[in-house]
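FAQ: What does the model actually see?

It sees only this:
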Amino acid sequence: MRLARPVYETLPFIYVAIGGFAMLVSYHETQESRAAAAFAIGIIAEIAALTLLLRRRDYRDLQREYSGETDLYAGGTNLHDGPANVPPAESSAGAERQLPLDL
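And it is asked to produce this:
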């Protein structure tokens, strides 16, 4: 099932609202079984919202990576490559360290 982009973009926020409302209802409900059911619905809605947000972020990162786009931050480098504009570390292969002889 495919959803229109505006609907898909607002789904996590709708789930957050439903979850928050269900938790609020569970707080004010006097009957214990209905309060527990409302709280469970709230938790499930919040987990669904978080899942959608994280999956959407991962999908966008993956699309950006495979399309060859660079990130707008970190000087145009990928975050996995390390910080931008950092000089390479000095090599210690040719230089020997001398220790003082008088202790």
